[in-house]
Design a protein that fits this description.
about 230 residues; globular; Rossmann fold; about 35% helix; 10 helices; alpha/beta
């Protein structure tokens, strides 16, 4: 039997206008879009098995906001690919926070692809497209300025999936947890073979997530493609 979130947990899921404005800008349209996205994730997202009911209280802090703050690392007007997008994370929050970006959500599972199309149609995000594919099926390769990923696979696998999609001079940005340093150490040889330079670990969102419940910034491993 699946546990439903308690009333106290749901109360914690509320996010202040201050936090939303610090991440998405003081823009009514962007804030309305991201609120609508969270609403869809917490309703039809549960019905379709995109997320579990226990994730509802954590949608803002652990998922949506921590995805959006990665925009700090992305240059203006970048072509972004989100590998293994799932329910649209991190790609949809990034596209909402940064209307100047063009974001392609790459996802192989049809039910998730259907959900992503419904989200885009329902809330009107013009700078997004959805591609049903695995990373190794994306064509053309080597076109993206930035390739993002979140909760997809260990870094040792991600480098072989993501770096080939980035142009030379572009980069991959993988949202990781506290084990990021160990993953970087273990993947050194694979990074080099995939054409990557030195891996850097950056913490995004520090000082932006004002609510006490949202105090976990995003730890991101970035690797520039050098050949």
């Amino acid at each position: 039997m699946t546990e439903e979130p308690t009333s106290s947990e749901i109360a914690e899921a509320n996010v202040s206008r201050e936090t939303l404005a610090s991440v998405f800008g003081d823009d009514e349209e962007r804030i309305a879009r991201v609120e609508a996205y969270v609403g869809l994730l917490s309703t039809i997202g549960i019905e379709r098995g995109i997320i579990g009911p226990r994730e509802v209280p954590r949608l803002w802090g652990r998922h949506v906001l921590s995805s959006a703050v990665v925009e700090e690392l992305i240059p203006e007007k970048a072509d972004v690919i989100d590998v293994g997008s799932g329910g649209g994370l991190p790609g949809i929050p990034l596209a909402i926070a940064r209307p100047d970006l063009w974001v392609t959500l790459v996802e192989p599972m049809q039910r998730r692809v259907d959900f992503l199309h419904e989200v885009i149609e329902a809330i009107g995000i013009p700078n997004l497209e959805v591609l049903r594919a695995r990373a190794d099926e994306v064509d053309p390769r080597g076109r993206a300025d930035v390739v993002v990923s979140r909760a997809v696979a260990p870094l040792s696998k991600l480098v072989g999936w993501c770096l080939p999609l980035a142009k030379v001079g572009g980069m991959m940005a993988a949202i990781k947890g506290q084990g990021a340093s160990l993953e970087v150490t273990e993947s050194g040889g694979l990074i080099k073979r995939a054409g990557g330079g030195k891996a850097e670990i950056t913490v995004c969102g520090e000082g932006k997530l004002a609510d006490p419940v949202f105090t976990v910034p995003a730890t991101v491993v970035t690797i520039k493609r050098i050949r």
